Amino acid sequence: MRVVHRCAIAGAIIFIAAIGTATSGEGVSFSADIAPILNDHCATCHVTGSEPGHMALYSEVSYQYLVGVPSEESTLKRVEPGDPERSYIVHKLNGTQVSVGGKGQPMPFGSQPLPDELQAKIRQWIALGAPNN
User: Fold this and answer.
1) Strand-pair partners of 77
2) Interval 19-62: pLDDT, tens
3) Which of 39, 71, 109, 117 has the least C-beta neighbours within 10 A?
4) Cα separations (Å) of 58 from 2, 5, 20, 74, 119?
């Protein structure tokens, strides 16, 4: 009986630790992973915040222009922490912006879509709560 009890306790501890890791943003970092994507693929056009979309996407300011900020083209926020499907940036990158009430061209404008692995990283970061880490 004691072995079963100890196994149950050990299982609960592992489960709680796994939940903590999944929600902490570990494994994806805004500064190390997301900001470089934005710098390489977005900041060449979104520099000052006066361009279409009114957002600057270079490393030092991109977080404040994205997270929790309403989109100008849709009723969605640019990034809705914890919810990639309710994040307009995901739709702009996928070319599905019209399906969520948006408009305009898919991003990055005039370029190939972001590779799937980069889009997946952005979705993962948003799903983890879009931490500023």
Assistant:
1) 70, 87
2) 344 444 468 999 999 999 999 999 999 999 999 999 999 999 99
3) 117
4) 57, 53, 30, 22, 18
